[in-house]
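For the sake of transparency, this paper describes our internal protein records without simplification. The tokens are whole numbers drawn from a learned vocabulary of local backbone shapes. One such record is reproduced below, unchanged from the form in which we store it.

. . .
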Amino acid sequence: MENKLTLKKPKKIVTLFIIALFIGLTAFATVVLANQGTIKVDASVVNVRTGPGLSYDIMTQVTGGEKVTMLTEENEWYKVRLSNDQIGWIASWLIENTEVSAATNKMGVVTGDEVNIRSESNADSTILGKVVNGTELTVLFQQEGWTQVQYYGQVAWISSELIDITESSTETTTVAVAEENSAPIQTVTTRSAGTNIRTSPSVESSVVATAEKGESFTYLSTKGDWYQIELASGETGYVANWVVDLSGSQTPAPTANITSLAEATIVIDAGHGGDDPGALAHSFYEKEVTLDTAKLVANRLRDAGANVILTRSDDEFVSLDERTVISNQSNADVFISLHYDSTETANEISGTTTYYYHDKDMPLAEIVNANLKQNGLLPNNGVRFGNFYVTRENTQPAILLELGYLNNDVDQDTVNSASYQSSIAEILYQSLNQYFIP
């Protein structure tokens, strides 16, 4: 009897161990799943990029219906792991979120004195640059003794022996690059004349200096949407990130690389609103038809996958400055302001007009106007220069459309209809499709 009991004890221990192991593995799997999620591609074809923005290079594509593992989220972009274990970024507005739970970002701190950053995970690959001890890099993936990191808008590799992985805060970090001849680490270059340099990172703060177009400054740090820079006098100030370009001596900052309307950010500006009614027709105000038209345009573009921002979505007053700030801060690819015109004399003129201010606006203006002329339901008055605040102060490609005259009997009956406003939505959709062709 004693021998039989003795033989049963090991089996009982083994059984308990298996149960404990199963519970442990289940708990581990639960933790893993809590930090990751599955996302399904909604658009027919979606670009996977090397970083969270349209300025980053396309590394591959995934097709509609395909599912990928989501690792984290940043600025409306999902960091994903593909089926071949590649790490990339997908625009959140192009996918269907099925069970997303963001994981914690990880950072790596360089431990070597001067460490090579390479294009591939081997010691024979191209050296993209060098980083010094203490540099923090965003970590994407690790395999076989190599760590994949983000480096100046690129996916790059560093030996895992030379980087310590830590949990990341959400604050922006600066990448220090070892340079020859003591060249600046990074510079900020203004895109246009009269760029304001401010005392603090806010449009409300006072201006300490203004810069000319193409003027460069030493980059010091990042705070939100602002860069801290050093002026020639030695003073420091802040400049908005939407009015400048970044460049580094190793690799210049990438520029936007839009390949389709589905990747674009479009700002649609419904003119007037609130206590600013705009022009008056017999039975309605301009602010009403601009908003109705803007909503139809937004829906049409969103159906095509575009990221659309409305400067107003109801009958509220939005200042001209606020409208341009929305465009500039969102780094919009296109800004379109919708209006309906009026003249001192009724029935004096009819039709649509496309206005631009900067030379950079002309390609967009010409494409939109050509489609208004060919497919519009009203006469077309061509492309014209116009000194409007929302186009003049916009650093993004911007146009202002006058879509009919509210004191013209034919125009006002035409424009206050769903069919006319839908035709405008279709014209803008087709125009932007042409505009974003590579």
Observations:
- Residues 2-34 form the longest helix (33 residues).
- The CA atoms of residues 227 and 239 lie 5 Å apart.
- The radius of gyration is 28 Å.
